[in-house]
Design a protein that fits this description.
Elements (H helix, E strand, L loop, with lengths): L2 H4 L6 E6 L2 H17 L3 E6 L4 H11 L3 H7 L2 E5 H5 L7 H17 L5 E6 L11 H8 L9 E8 L5 H9 L3 E2 L5 E6 L4 E8 L4 H8 L9 E11 L1 H15 L5 E4 L2 H10 L6 E3 L6
Parallel strand pairs: 1-5, 1-6, 2-3, 2-4, 4-5, 8-9, 9-10, 10-11
Antiparallel strand pairs: 7-8
């Protein structure tokens, strides 16, 4: 278990490419204990381990677990029943289920939602790119910072191409690249931190896409970004160009190095950059 699991934050969407049952269970213990500590609703999706056995093992490892499970603060769902109900996998349906879980946890007064999902149910399904497409699309649920999730893929069950695809659909890879994002409502914008690598470019594209239609001046705070690849820079410039066609401005607040990279790709001056101020 790497640092991304131990330091899980609200809004994190982590891919854990595990190689043992113990690695997944340790992550489940860490997430569950943290969820109870922070008064978050916690959902565990299990495939390899039966639901009742996981309940028993967590009761042995997590203080206060039995009472929390009885009170409904922790729920365990069977992976195949959850993801494949209705005759097969439907990514949009699953996004709707998790969106409903977010709403429910907010209405019940929790401080957040924590999820860990054993994705082994997908190992014998002919999903192709649909699995990575789903993991990419579900990132939209994390922009508010309410939900944090760990998606566990067993390297013993999935081939290298599938592991590479699903990892690229997560902004955080345990023991790998990581970036975080958070939507801002007023003024409209987005906060980006961490490393914008080629490996997570599909996540950045998913997060930026809804911003093209924001009917107001947009500010992207990238002062916490520590690395930007050329692919990410091109995406930011392309967003600004789309928005300029709608007579809307786009500003990126960033350090000089990122600003220089953006200028390199912004030959038409669609994007405004500025350094951070004392008020940012």
């Amino acid at each position: 278990m790497g640092n991304a699991i131990a330091t899980l934050r609200p809004g994190d969407h982590v891919c854990l490419a595990a190689a043992s049952d113990a690695e997944w269970f340790d992550a489940a213990v860490t997430l569950t204990a943290g969820g109870l500590r922070d008064h978050c609703k916690t959902i565990l999706v299990t495939t390899i381990q039966p639901v009742e056995r996981l309940h028993r093992r967590l009761a042995e490892r997590v203080p206060g677990y039995p009472a929390a499970a009885v009170a409904g603060h922790v729920e365990i769902a069977a992976g195949r029943e959850l993801y494949l109900s209705g005759g097969g996998f439907d990514g949009d349906r699953m996004i709707g289920i998790y969106a409903a879980a977010i709403d429910d946890s907010q209405q019940r007064g929790y401080a957040g939602l924590r999820v860990i999902a054993d994705m082994a149910w997908a190992a014998d399904q002919p999903l192709g790119e649909r699995l990575a497409d789903y993991e990419t699309a579900v990132n939209r649920l994390f922009t508010t910072g309410w939900m944090a999730a760990i998606c566990q893929y067993d390297r013993r069950l999935f081939d290298d191409a599938t592991i590479e695809g699903v990892c690229s659909a997560h902004p955080i890879i345990d023991n790998g690249a990581a970036f975080r994002f958070r939507a801002v409502e007023e003024p409209p914008g987005l906060v980006l931190t961490g490393d914008l690598h080629r490996s997570n470019r599909r996540v950045l594209a998913e997060v930026l896409a809804p911003l093209a239609d924001v009917p107001a001046a947009l500010t992207i705070d990238a002062t916490g970004v520590t690395f930007v690849g050329p692919e990410a820079a091109v995406m930011l410039v392309s967003l600004a160009r789309l928005r300029r066609e709608q007579a809307q401005t786009t500003t990126v607040v960033c350090a000089y190095g990122l600003g220089a990279l953006l200028w390199k790709f912004d030959s038409t001056g669609a994007l405004t950059t500025r350094g951070p101020s004392a008020h940012d």
